[in-house]
Design goal:
Chain B: It comes from Isoptericola halotolerans. The complex is a heterodimer of chains A (124) and B (449). With 124 residues, chain A is of the alpha+beta class. Chain A is built from 5 helices and 3 strands. Chain A has a single domain, classed as Arc Repressor Mutant, subunit A (Orthogonal Bundle). Chain B has 16 helices and no strands.
Amino acid sequence: MHIDKDLVAASATPLVLGILAEGESYGYAIAKRVADLSGGHMEWTDGMLYPLLHRLERNGLIEASWGRSPAGRRRKHYAITLAGREALAERRAQWEVVSAALTQAWEAVARPVPSGPAAAGGLA
Amino acid sequence: MDTATSLETQIARWRDYVHRHRAIAPADVDEMEDHLRERVADLTATGLDDDEAFLVAVKRLGRLDSVSREFAREHSERLWKQLVLVPDGPDGDGSPAARRELAVVLALAVGAGVAVKLGATFWDETVLLRNVGLLVAPFLAGYLAWKRRLTGRTLGALGAAFVALGVVLNAYPFDPAGSTAALAAVHAPVVLWALVGLAYAGGGWRSADRRMDFVRFTGELAVYLVLIALGSAVLVGLTFGLLGLVGVDLEPVLERWLMPFGVPGALLVAAWLVEAKQEVVENIAPVLTRVFTPLTTVMLVVSFGVLVSAGGLTTVDRELLILLDAVLVLVLALLLYSISARDPLARPGLFDGLQLAMVVAALAVDAVALTAMLTRIAEFGASPNKVAALGLNLLLAVHLVRSGWLTLGFCRRRRGFAALERWHTSYLPVYAVWAAVVVVVFPPVFGFS
């Protein structure tokens, strides 16, 4: 299933913040986690993750620090900040409203195609 | 082992390619390389070989142009090259070398200021004006010599040249009201600038490239000086106004302290800025030449028309020659700076044609006025001023004729661009020699009058 570009873009920030709220992580691990969470449906262009992380860092929602990978390579780790947690809570509330509204609106109509609504549920 | 090295080569090549995107900083490349390697490792674990894994991993990173655009949106400041005056070292402090350079520049700037101040205290105005370049230039040359780590021999030669010039300017029995003294004062800075050029080239003054670099340095220095002067004027004006409100007159301080220290200081600081930002900002002087070449051509064509139709050129004297020299110097500077910034491999284009038109127009104006002048000199005899102005005019005319000829050859694709470049750089020392002749030979020949 292909998920619309705008939808991916809109969900990217809360998704990354949510993943980092689970604990400190780094670029590739975040990308992999996104793939896991969406069952492989949310295909990001990997390169786009980094400008997003830098934007969140600049806005003070996450913090970065340079460390080393087990293999000894330079690796940038990201951790969520207090402001990030607040932003996440707010985004989450927004998404819940949207999700609830969509669910109610769609209850009335028959489901058009038989594929699952997993992505929408997993994003909140 | 072989596949591992081929993967390393591919990653190195990829890094190289990503580096060319200015919006992506080296640290970001490190970050993305880590990502790439992790992805490759995961993919090889599922059974792909290194090459396939690398291809897939790169593909998944996305089109570099769009990623780079995204980086640019987030880090717009990276597209503006930044001038870091005291660059951060690895620990976040300013690097000691940069700090030391700044200290040296400031010390030399103060030194030049003290020299000028002492000169102003002990000499009268005409002697000071004749020597002021000599008071400042050694400090500038000293900075460049320090930066280039000149050898003792070059330093000795430079010092000897400065001393010799000082002796000539002050030991000659100039007639205070005579024109040879004024000519020496005007031409000494050219000689001094050539000496600064020697320090700049760091011994490699025979190299055409180093000479062209010095030309670029001169242009950027002029631009920086003008900017600093504008800024200072605003600052001084505001201070004047503020202190004027409480009835304090700043003028004596300005004359006695601000000018003697500020102007030489600005020169050294400007030189340091040009050196510091060499690779940071695009050169501005060549941009100005692009704007002014067509405008100058129009100005020259109009002047030509007016001069030819007016006819009465015999009534004007050396002012005409001096004005003409100024016009030719302007044309030459425009030519030189656009050449200094031109891609030597680019094919002849519209702008080269425009330059040729400008050179032809300048030479036409020069020819008209020069005939008038020569008949006048034949009639009334030569004075030091006229000979100096005429000599410079001839030098400039030769320079322009030959560069016009070479530009024509280049536009008709008979010749390479390199010939034009080489002509300019090899002709430049002629001006220094001529200036030295005016300073050293003219006064005795014309009896110091």
